[in-house]
Write a structure and sequence with these properties.
Blueprint: H1 2-26, H2 40-46, E1 53-54, E2 63-68, E3 72-79, E4 82-87, H3 88-92, E5 98-106, E6 112-113, E7 116-118, E8 123-126, E9 135-141, E10 151-154
Antiparallel strand pairs: 1-7, 2-3, 2-9, 3-4, 4-5, 5-6, 5-8, 9-10
Length: 155
């Protein structure tokens, strides 16, 4: 029971920090305080506006371009939960293109959202233990889209 309470407290703290960072940076008018004392109701109220890309949102050959604080990553969906990645750490280590799985996204701690591929303010964790700097912007390019580029900006 104590571990569950600790995990809930940790989730609450990390979520409130993320939301504060996300809404303050985006310039969105919000009732969230920018100092201490964010409530669980405020988090739940603003969570639907939090844009994130989930595994179920992506199809085979979709391209996800992720701009982090320090790098740019190009991810192409190649299979069930598998991606071909270039850019960032993989380019610096001369491993591009590299086939990886994404464990999920974190706020820099041990709590991970397993179904999330990318979300502004969060760090992407790859299965080879590489963790990106916080995501700033995400673009999705769909090859089967009626438009020429088929891109959709997500944050």
């Amino acid at each position: 029971m104590a571990m569950v309470l600790f995990n809930l407290r940790n989730l609450f703290r990390q979520t409130s920090l993320l939301l504060r960072r996300y809404f303050v940076r985006s310039g969105t008018q919000t009732s969230l305080p920018t100092t201490h004392g964010i409530s669980l109701n405020a988090i739940l109220q603003h969570l639907p506006r939090f844009r994130r890309i989930q595994r179920t949102d992506l199809c085979f050959a979709d391209r996800v371009v992720v701009y982090t604080q320090n790098s740019r990553y190009d991810l192409i969906v190649v299979g069930d939960g598998e991606y071909m990645v270039t850019g960032g750490w993989f380019d610096r280590e001369s491993l591009s293109p590299h086939r990886v799985r994404i464990n999920g996204c974190t706020w820099g701690g041990s709590m991970i959202w397993k179904e999330t591929v990318a979300a502004p303010g969060m760090c992407i964790e790859f299965d080879n233990r590489v963790i990106t700097s916080p995501v700033r912007r995400v673009l999705i390019c769909r090859p089967n889209s009626p438009s020429t580029l088929g891109s959709q900006r997500m944050a």
